[in-house]
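Exercise 3.2. Students should predict the tertiary structure of the chain below and write it as structure tokens, then compare their answer with the key that follows.

Predict this chain's 3D structure.
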Amino acid sequence: MEKAGVSVVYVATDIEDRENKMKDVLGPLSEEYDFILIDCSPSLGLITVNALTASNSVIIPVQCEYFAMEGLGKLLSTITIIQKRLNPDLEIEGILLTMYDVRLNLSNQVVEEISTHFRSMMFKTLIPRNIKLSESPSFGLPAIAHDADSKGAISYLNLAKEMLQRNELAIK
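Answer key:
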């Protein structure tokens, strides 16, 4: 199935070598693009395994909420398994803290806890809790197209700049 130049591959669970289907599709495209971003749902199912198997690196988004830290541990374990069994070249690009609200003690505690254990892996950019970010999917638009001046959109632009700076050698 194709939409806007993107191929979508449906992967059944009984297909041989199913963990490599996304890698097989994206592999030939890697020479045409500097970055290919794969956005996965927050589950650790087959699509996420396919995405991690096909990727060079992973950005780990962590909501600034208590249970998100538990999910971080499970995702890190999954990444370790993928590195051992399916993709030894997979690296962690960084941990991205999202839905940050400076007014909430819990948000600040999560930032402190993550920075205590993973400071070198954290992106400097924090993505704030922002109504425009929440609204944009209902309009069928990315946040930047919905409201480029919103704090959320500006934060994602800052994240893009930070990623480009981190990967400067890779894009020359």
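Discussion points: The chain has two domains: 2-95, 130-172. The radius of gyration is 17 Å.
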